[in-house]
Amino acid sequence: MKKNLRRFLLLSAHRLEVWAKQLKGAADKIVPEKRIFLLDCEKQQWQDVRPCFVLSTGRSGTLLLNNLLLLSPEAMPLHEPVPELYRPSREAYERIDREPEIFREIFKACREEYMLKAVRQDKVYIETNNQITFFAPIIRQVFPEAVFIHLVRNPASFVRSGIRRKWYTGEHSHDIGRIVPLQGEAAEKWQTLHPIEKMGWLWNETNRFIEDFKKTIPAENCLFIKAEDMFSQVEAARQIFKFLQLPYPGDGKVKKIIRKPVNVQRKGDFPPFPQWSEEDKQRLREFTPLAGEYG
User: Fold this and answer.
1) Mean pLDDT for the stretch of residues 252-262
2) How many other C-beta atoms are found inside a 10 Å radius of the C-beta of residue 8?
3) Which has the closest alpha carbon to 64: 292, 272, 233, 205?
4) Rounded to whole angstroms, what are the CA distances from 197 to 189, 232, 235?
């Protein structure tokens, strides 16, 4: 009985997946596409294209942001485009300043077809995948008019989520692409650091990398958003749509989206920040100095 039920569920899931792909393919065919070729975009060096890339640590509301952007028929938001670039993301963090041409070609090869599809459909390409964060220094070399959203979540919430997901334990499949300190005291003590310290380092180092990148582009090309504001305030959504030069879908539709939490962490046992010991709170403070700057 159990085997039959399991077989039925697996078959149903497979059929749903096939139907979803067929519906998506049909929807794509309905959208009229301009007759534009990759070579045309290359010749123009993508000058007429203004894509947006969301820079973040992950676990910071990127899926919710993606769902908000789906409200716009003029947007083409993608949360997990393939390939997601887990391993190359870590390599970019370690080597992009020394070998930018390699990562430029990797990024171009992985994303130009998506960009071309957006151009053909006259939509704004927006990538909410956090794995492109460490590619930021070369993105405008590939797409010169690209803009960015820097999405930041409270470090305590981020750390709790990472610990519950068993990051840095070797038990999470994406640990293969997770950055680690390359030098300094954190690198020397890495194996003995508390999980809060490891996760705190990750939060701070990722945002430090983003802050360094932001200094290289005009301020108007990057929008800073706190995840907690996006979770609770329509004003954050208004800022995002304005920045992307997209019509705002209205407070009613936005409220309907933000009222329904998505990608909520349900597994793992680790208490919320107010229940931490003072020692653990101090661990977090020591490893996340940017938290004070972000308020």
Assistant:
1) 93
2) 10
3) 233
4) 10, 28, 33
